[in-house]
Each structure stands twice: as structure tokens, then as C-alpha cells.
TrEMBL record, chain A:
<keyword id="KW-0996">Nickel insertion</keyword>
<protein>
    <recommendedName>
        <fullName>Urease accessory protein UreG</fullName>
    </recommendedName>
</protein>
<dbReference type="Pfam" id="PF02492">
    <property type="entry name" value="cobW"/>
</dbReference>
<keyword id="KW-0963">Cytoplasm</keyword>
<comment type="similarity">
    <text>Belongs to the SIMIBI class G3E GTPase family. UreG subfamily.</text>
</comment>
<comment type="function">
    <text>Facilitates the functional incorporation of the urease nickel metallocenter. This process requires GTP hydrolysis, probably effectuated by UreG.</text>
</comment>
<feature type="region of interest" description="Disordered">
    <location>
        <begin position="1"/>
        <end position="21"/>
    </location>
</feature>
<keyword id="KW-0342">GTP-binding</keyword>
<keyword id="KW-0143">Chaperone</keyword>
Automatic annotation (TrEMBL), chain B:
<dbReference type="InterPro" id="IPR038277">
    <property type="entry name" value="UreF_sf"/>
</dbReference>
<comment type="function">
    <text>Required for maturation of urease via the functional incorporation of the urease nickel metallocenter.</text>
</comment>
<protein>
    <recommendedName>
        <fullName>Urease accessory protein UreF</fullName>
    </recommendedName>
</protein>
<comment type="subunit">
    <text>UreD, UreF and UreG form a complex that acts as a GTP-hydrolysis-dependent molecular chaperone, activating the urease apoprotein by helping to assemble the nickel containing metallocenter of UreC. The UreE protein probably delivers the nickel.</text>
</comment>
<comment type="similarity">
    <text>Belongs to the UreF family.</text>
</comment>
<dbReference type="InterPro" id="IPR002639">
    <property type="entry name" value="UreF"/>
</dbReference>
<keyword id="KW-0143">Chaperone</keyword>
<keyword id="KW-0963">Cytoplasm</keyword>
<dbReference type="Pfam" id="PF01730">
    <property type="entry name" value="UreF"/>
</dbReference>
Amino acid sequence: MHLDHATTFPERHTHSAEPLRADGTRRALRIGLGGPVGSGKTATVAALCRALRDTVSLAVVTNDIYTREDADFLLRESVLPPERITAVETGACPHTAIRDDISANLEAVEDLEDAIGPLQLILVESGGDNLTATFSKGLVDAQIFVIDVAGGDDIPRKGGPGVTTADLLVVNKTDLAPHVGSDLQRMARDAKEQRHELPVVFQSLRSERGVTDVADWVRARLAAWNAA
Amino acid sequence: MSRAALLVLADGRFPAGGHAHSGGAEEAVKAGRITDAATLEEFCRGRLHTAGLVAAGLAAAAALGIDPLVLDDAADARTPSAALRTAGRKLGRQLLRAARATWPSPELSALAAARPRGAHQPVVLGLTARAAGLGPEDAAYCAVYESVGGPSTATVRLLSLDPFQATAVLARLAPAMDETVTAAVTAARRALDDGVDALPRASAPLLEIGAEAHAAWPVRLFAS
């Protein structure tokens, strides 16, 4: 499943998007998590933090639509120390803040590194949006699109930029499939058709395996980033 | 000057963070002061003659080459609300990032080095206009248009106001915008000789008070 985009981390020229810091060291890898409302983005971020925090220096930026609820959830769950979680306000337009006008998110990312020193990984979580919401390459180095089986098993077939182009597609809440009448094999077939060789993970955070596959994928990206 | 460069800078899609701010409209909507197109127009007219005029004066002065750090202090002095000073610097920092990527200039880099946490947005706007080869009138027009364009689009989202009506409000305000620009640029030219005290210092107490209240809301759509 670990076949990725041909160009892993293309050069860019936005301020603070360059892969090296002013002192020549490599800046933190930034991974965006997007997807529809309620698909399990925040739960996946929380699980990733728990899985990675002992071995990776990481922080989280949330993009709530009209509250600080996602940031507050992560704080309440104590997945990271509070200074490693920050929230961006998006003016009723979560997709604008991650794609068309990334300035507030870039600031949040920079402020995190200013405040707590060099980081290895920053997860940028989008506010829940629609199937066309994708992250700008000026903001993140790779993106994960999270959908769930309860949102309808026709979402992979319908495609859209999130499903089609994300570096990793996560189909979440597989434990619910029998209860909502979703056909996982059909979802896998449709995803393969839309995404060709790009990877797809089916996950249930309630299962023993939990976030393992996604965490492994993140670790692989991190290794590629540090080796680049 | 390049008229096309002015359009690039004045475009609401210019990626400098404005979309997350309502210019006080969110608070005014909740307080019942903006309820429809007519009240939006009155709100915008009030902003034009206060916050808009002050921003335009600062932007024109920066475009004329007056020291941006002195102007930054002048902007602080003209913004009683701490919440608005914070928002102004945040937006200035975001604009500076966008400006340095679009029109790189030593002056913009120097300001970024001197004010890493952000300078006031109108000052950055004026310096950006300068970097883009634009003049003080252009900078003032951008500031004035932004001072009413932001609340107008925010109200479309907040009240589900008819977008045609909201745009018609802006069109009706065009003559007043012209007058505000003229006043702001005249004052900015005077500031070249007489110092920054010659710049407009009109204040809108309700906007300042409302901004403080808004900043404390637990649930809101806009950052200011």
C-alpha cells in the first residue's frame, strides 16, 4: 500500500514553506488532515499524538469553524502538553484557511516552533468541510483525507479532489459498516479506481489495531522528509 | 503607476488573511445594529469615516515613504482597543508575508525584521503599495475599500444577506470612498512636513468597545 506520489516533496518559494530553516536545519514536516464533518479527523489526530509522542517531537494546529472545540478536545484528552496545541480561526471558511489563503496557518506553525523550539512534525487539522477541500502545498508537505463508512459507501466512487489526490485516504469507523449497510469491499474497489496506486487505509480506532497503519505511514513520510 | 498591480493588491482574494475578519460586523449583527442592507450601509459609512479614514491616512503615508516604524506607533495610538491592536498586527503580519512573496522589496524585509510579530495592517499595506510601484492614492483606495468590503462579505455570511444587495451597498458608497481617499492623501502629504500628528485620528468608540466584547465570545465565526 505504500506507493506514493512520484515527486515526494517538491521545492517551493513561499515564506516559511522552504524545507530548511534560516539556520540551515530541516524544518518540521507538516501533514494536513482534512475531510467531511464528523469523519473522525480529531479522533485520528488524538490517536496519532498518542502513538507518536514518545518518539517524535510534534505539535498540532486545529482549524475550528466557529469554536475552539477541536483544540479543547485535544487539550482535555491531554494528548500533548497545551503549548503544543494551537487553534486558527477561519471566518466561516475552513477550506479558505487551508488552501486559498494559508497565511494564518503558516503563522500558527511558525509560532509553535518559535515558542517550543524545533519540532519534527506538525499536524494541521482542517475544520470539517466538503469533499473538495484540500490543503495548499504552500502549507503542508503531505495530506491525509479522512472519510468514514457512515457518510455513505458511495463517497470513494464520487471522488473529488480530497478522495482522488490526498497522499493517504483513510476510511474510518469500519466497525460501523455492518450497522449502516456500507460495503467495505466496494469502497476499496472504488477508491482504487479513483486513486490508482495511492494508498488507502481502512481503520477503526476502536479496534486493537487502532491508528497503527496511519502512524506507520506518517513515520515513513517523516523518514523520507529527513532523508531528502 | 500600474493599474493592474492595483487590482492585484485590492482583490479580496489576495491571500492576506482578511477573510477571517468581519471588521466589527459580527458584533454589530449580534447586537442588532446590522439587520439588512440599509443598516449594513450605515455601518459601513460609519467605518468609512472613522477606521477607514485612519487606515487610509496611514497607508498613504507609508506609500509616500514616511518611516513605517513611526507610523506603526501612530497606528497604536489611534487604536484604543487592545483586541483591535492585536487583530491589526496579526493582519499586518499576514499581509507582509503575502507581500514579500508577491513584490519582494528591501523595505518590506526590513519591516519584517523590525516587527517580527507584525506591524499594523494599514502601514504594511502602504509599504506593499510602494513595493508594487503604486502611489499614496492607490494605497488609500485599498485601505478604504477593505474597510467596507470586509464587513459587507462578512454580513453576507452572517445574515445570509442577498449578495447582490451587499455589493450594491458598496457601489452606493463609492462617492464617499473617493472623498475619504482625498482627505486621507491630503493629510498624508501634510504629514511629510508636519509629522504623523497631521494624520487622521477619527475614532469609533462603539467599534472599539464592540471589538473588546467580541474578543471574549466563546463561539464566533470571525476572528474580529
